[in-house]
Amino acid sequence: MASQIGFDNEKYLKEQTAAIAERVGHNGQKLYLEFGGKLIFDYHAARCLPGFDPNVKMRLLESFRDEAEVIICLYSGDVERKKIRADFGTTYDSEVLRLIDEFTQRGLRVAGVVITRFEGQPTVQNFRRRLENRGIAVYTHYATKGYPTDVDTIVSEDGYGRNDYIPTTKPIVVVTAPGPGSGKLATCLSQIYHDYKRGIHSGYSKYESFPVWNLPLKHPLNLAYEAATADLGDVNLIDHFHLETYDRKTVNYNRDLEAFPILQRILCRITGGDAGYRSPTDMGVNRIAWGIVDDGAVREASCQEIIRRYFRTSCEVALGQADKNCLQRISLIMKELDLLPEYRRVVIPAREAVKEGQARGKGDGGIFTGAAIELADGTIVTGKNSPLLHSSSSAVLNAAKILAHIPDDIDLLPHNILQSLSYFKKEIFGENKLALDLEETLLALSISATSNPAAAAAVEQLRHLRNRECHLSHIPTPGDESGFRKLGMNLTSDPSFSSKSLFDE
C-alpha cells in the first residue's frame, strides 16, 4: 500500500543547518565534522523515514559549499578483502570514487583520501596509485600506538604524529567514508593533534543520523538501527554521562559510550584544557527528530525495515557471509516488537506461488520458485519460474502488464524470442541453465519494445516499480539481484537455495 509521508526534508534541513552553523561558531578556527552513516544514497534512512530524501545530507552540505571541504576515509582492510556496499553491490574503494565524483559535481572540494590503519598491502598501494594518477591527494594513517589506554603515547610523535597531516583551508572539514569502521574518528583526532602543533585551534563534532538521541530507546526507528548494525554488535543505550550531568535521558550506542572517556582524555591532552563536552550526546548535532511529521508512519516503516534485515541476514548466514549471532540479535529485536517475518505482505504470496508452480508442474528442471511484488496501490503480483523464465522475471513482467493495462494473454516476449535466447545461451555460451534471469529479461524486453507496442508500454511502466517491495522464495541469482537493484526495488528472500548445484551462475 502507498506509504504515508512521515518525514519533512525542508523542516529537517532548516533545523540541521542551524545546528551545524551554531556548532561551528563555538569551535575555534576549524571544526572537524564526522559524518556517520551514508552521506549519499542513504536508502536505510529512506526506508525507515517515509519521505526522506536519500541525498538530503548532500543538499545540506551544498548549503555550506563556501565554508566546507571533505576528507574521505577508507580502511585498508576493507580494500584488501573487497568489502561490498550491499545496496549497490559495489566495493568500498569503488564507493570512494563515486563519493569524489559526487562532491566534485556539487562544487565541494575534496581535500584528500586517507587510507586508515595502513599496513602496506599491495592491493591498497595499487588503489593509492590509481587515485594519485587521477590527481587525488592520498594520505596514510596507521594503527595508533597505545590506543586506547596509553594517552601519553597516543598524543605524541609515536601516536598521531606518525600519521600524514592533511592540509585544509576551510572552517568546516567534513570527514566521511563509504561505511562504518573506516577510521573517521581517529582521522579527526589526528588532524586536531597536528593542527594544535601548528597553532590552529580546531574542534570536533559528530553528525550521525542513528540512533536518534531524543527518541525513546526502544522506538522502532532506533531498533532498526540496531538491526542494520547487527554485524558490528551495536546496541542502543541510555547515555549515562548525559543523564548524570543534565538529568535528561538521551540515546546513544555502546561504541560511542565506551569511547567517550578515552576521547575526552585525548582531546584534553591535545588542547591542554577542557574537551568541551560532558557526554557523547553533547558531541552530536543530529536533528533527524525535528523532521518527523508522522510518528506512526515512521514506526511502521521501521518495523518493516527490521523484517527486511531479518531476511537479508538469514540469507547471509545461509551463504556463510554472516555469523548466526547477527541473526539472533535481529530475532530478539523482532520479539521485542512482536514482529513476524510474515508481516511483510509479499512473503506469503511468494511462497504460495511456489505451490501453484508445483501444482502445474512447469518448473525449471523440477525446481519450483516464486516471487511476489507489491505495487503502489497495494496490489500483490506474483510470478513462477518456468523452463524459459526465472520467477523474478515472470513477476516483473506481470507487474509491468498490470501497470500498463495489458491483457494477460498478450506476450511481452514472444515464445520464439525466448526459445532463440535459450538456444543462444546453450549453443553459443555453453550454459546449462537456460531460463532468463531478471537482468537478461529486462534487456530482452527493451529490444522487443522496438517492434512490439505492448513491450514498449511495459518498459515505460518499469520506473513505477522503484521503491516497491518484492520477496522471493529463494536466494536470488546474481542476475536477479542485479536486476532488482537496477529497478530500485526493496528485495528480500527466504534463505533457501533455488537449485541443488553448489555453483549458481
UniProtKB/TrEMBL annotation:
Residues 5-337, 343-503 form the DUF1846 domain. It comes from the Bacteria. It holds the Pfam family DUF1846. It comes from Pyramidobacter porci. This is DUF1846 domain-containing protein. InterPro entries: DUF1846_C, DUF1846_N.
